[in-house]
């Protein structure tokens, strides 16, 4: 009966570990997708971001790839009932857990620095709009995609000396990417595409919100995977312990069966008992005189 209970318990833990491993595969694929998506978002506005802002997203993608390969150890170890593979799976999970917690902490730490960093970078870049092509492309991208104009408002362009044609509003020339609505008409043989409405809001609040929420999503994703990993680590060590117990119990029962067979054989053939070889077992205890 104890042996049967041990076998049943081990099978339950094994199948639960397989389920958790399957969840690992799905969540790893999900977190890789989230990490690459957020990395792409960061890349679109990379001109205004510091390099360190990319670290959590890169870290999350790497962790997701590692988790996909680590899941193989869990599946094979559970199916083969290999204590070594299951222990390797649990140890690697523990190490990755530390990395995920570090990634979450980094994401939330950088999240608190986003507003000041973007404010400084945007205000330093806007005077260079007409002199550097990369600044022109970066501002045109965020203004057209985020439906904004300037840093805090379109009035920021009043401090920038325009060297190319743009949209004139109250003696302020703003880029065409600030146009929210145009009116197309034909006057004689001339086609006129006139901007009738500008984006009123600045880009700083919107790009800050975008990066802030993305960093929060990275941190939340890392903590979610970490929670699932804790469950996987517990099941892995429990399965490894159950496998060791089951193998020890099997060896003990096999030894008992062999002993019974030897005893039964010697009892049925007492004349052959004398011809059996004598095995001396060394005694490591203490002897008394």
UniProtKB/TrEMBL annotation:
Pfam family, one: Tetraspanin
Family matches, as Gene3D superfamilies: Tetraspanin (1.10.1450.10)
Swiss-Prot/TrEMBL keywords: Membrane, Transmembrane, Transmembrane helix
TM region(s), chain numbering: 12-42, 54-79, 86-110, 215-240
Membrane topology (UniProt): Multi-pass membrane protein
Keyword ATP-binding part of the UniProt annotation: no
Main location: membrane
GO cellular component: plasma membrane
Entry's localization field: Membrane
Secretion signal span: none
Family: Belongs to the tetraspanin (TM4SF) family.
Protein's name in the database: Tetraspanin
């Amino acid at each position: 009966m104890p042996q049967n209970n041990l076998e049943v318990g081990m099978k339950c833990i094994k199948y639960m570990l397989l389920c958790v491993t399957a969840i690992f595969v799905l969540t790893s694929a999900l977190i890789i997708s989230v990490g690459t998506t957020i990395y792409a978002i960061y890349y679109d506005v990379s001109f205004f971001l510091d390099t360190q802002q990319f670290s959590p997203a890169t870290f999350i993608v790497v962790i997701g790839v590692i988790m996909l390969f680590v899941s193989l150890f869990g599946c094979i170890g559970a199916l083969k009932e290999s204590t070594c593979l299951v222990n390797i799976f649990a140890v690697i999970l523990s190490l990755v857990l530390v990395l995920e917690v570090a990634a979450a902490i980094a994401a939330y730490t950088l999240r608190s620095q986003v507003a000041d960093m973007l404010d400084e970078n945007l205000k330093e870049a806007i005077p260079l709009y007409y002199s550097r092509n990369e600044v022109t492309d970066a501002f045109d991208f965020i203004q057209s995609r985020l439906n904004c104009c300037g840093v805090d408002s379109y009035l920021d362009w009043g401090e920038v000396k325009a060297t190319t044609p743009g949209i004139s509003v109250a003696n302020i020339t703003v880029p065409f990417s600030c146009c929210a609505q145009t009116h197309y008409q034909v006057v004689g043989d001339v086609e006129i595409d006139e901007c009738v409405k500008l984006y009123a809001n600045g880009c700083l609040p919107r790009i800050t919100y975008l990066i802030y929420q993305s960093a929060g999503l990275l941190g939340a994703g890392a903590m979610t995977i970490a929670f699932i990993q804790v469950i996987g680590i517990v099941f892995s060590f429990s399965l490894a312990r159950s496998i060791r117990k089951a193998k020890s119990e099997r060896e003990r029962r096999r030894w008992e069966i062999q002993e019974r067979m030897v005893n039964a054989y010697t009892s049925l053939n007492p004349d052959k008992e004398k011809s059996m070889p004598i095995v001396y077992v060394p005694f490591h205890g203490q002897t008394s005189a």
